[in-house]
Known about the structure:
Blueprint: H1 5-24, H2 29-39, H3 45-58, H4 65-78, H5 80-93, H6 97-110, H7 122-137, H8 153-172, H9 178-196, H10 203-213, H11 223-238, H12 243-258, H13 265-275, H14 282-298, H15 306-312, H16 318-331, H17 338-351, H18 355-367, H19 373-384, H20 392-404, H21 410-418, H22 425-436, H23 443-458, H24 476-492
Amino acid sequence: MFRTFTERRARKEQERQHELSVRLRSPEPEVRATAAGEIAQARDMAWAIRELAQAMDREPSPIWFDAVAGPFCDAVCRDRAVRERVERMFAAHADEPVELVRAWTALLAEFGAGAALDTVDDELAAEVGARLRRVREQGGMLHELSGTAPDSLDYVVTFGVTVELLHDAVRRYVPLPADDIERTRRETRETLERALAHPARSDHRHALLVSHCEPPDDETWADRQLAALHIREALDLCGSAEPDRVALGVEALSVMLRFNHVCLNNAVRETLDRLCVPDQDPFTFSEVLSCYPSLHAGRRLDDPPVEMFLAALGHADPLVRANAAAGLDTIAAGLPEESRAVAALIEAMEHDPDIEVVRSAAYALATIPCREEADARAASAALAGKAGSADPGLRVASVDGAIHRDEPGAFDLLTAELRRPDVEARFVSSVDLFLDLGKLPPKDVTAQWARLLERLRQDGWPDRPNEHEAGGDTEPDFRVALLELTLDKLRAHT
């Protein structure tokens, strides 16, 4: 039987769709990503949107999620009816995360991707609210999408980022199976009990907490929910009547938050506020102070306790003062108290009798993103005076502050440090940090840095830390790995 041209084309299209659908389910992420990009341009837009919506909802790796979410957005933007529906949804619920999640999951359910959520978990709503706030802060105006050309850069970026952040949050807050919840809580309680047998601030206790709470190398969608279970157990300890258990609970919280396990914010904030009392044990108070900046950086607090941090700079215990200084760059930046915070940090850097407090204040001055130009100038001037300090902790603050603020000659300061045959590892780490941040000097400078680091490697630098270094910075394996990683990044920029 002879087939008509239309029938042959339909059959060919059906075979093509089947082939793409199979590739979209490949165990190889690169294959899935390539297939998603091809599907986004398919003639049958309804099929493309359905396939990509389902793929986005089943993508096994958070790392590769954007490789599917991006093509999904491309496909949606080609279909005027679906695109305008999403635009109306974003405009109507830009300030209503619960309603946005309901509407979004209902839309995807129509394409066979997941179930529509009638009940939205408080944590999911808070996370979506925080993400929408970040979109607005970056200039994304959801309520203006319908009046913007769909092929314009502003539209493509705002639409794409919002979709990715929204569905990424939905995926991360899928409830865990009951068996996984029970197993995780049991293992966390057992780890905390073992940690309790070691003194506060001891290496053994810290190692136990880190090994249990450190995220896996390969990120999974369950990580956020697992972190929430860890935090719940730490909060339970913080509610104990036994001071030793409270101290462990706060120390565990500090470790968890440092790993960016920012969830259960309201419960964590209530616990921290309750523990900030005048007669609190200094160690517990210092750990409480270390938690607030992580909480604020993850999801901005409506009323960060700046006054408490400023007052804590006068505490009798140096550990409390050091943590108060270390947190002010995050807690006070951009607020009305910013100028007082900068002045207080300068005072601590110049006059505190404890060197750790001095170093903490100096580095906070280096990294505080001042809103007021006068505050930035004051911080820069104070740090410039430490460029020739005998203490490497103060010099690294001076160098890093100059680079953060794009000051003339800043890269020359770092080059001078790298020329020293006994340069501290923290200066090599500064090179690595600023490359990651996109603070790139001219290529001749990166080439010079690469030559200097290569010379350090050839001269046996990893095996000879100087007298100013301690802890992990002295370990040869760490120093070798740091050199290799930084050299690889430098070569990519030369």
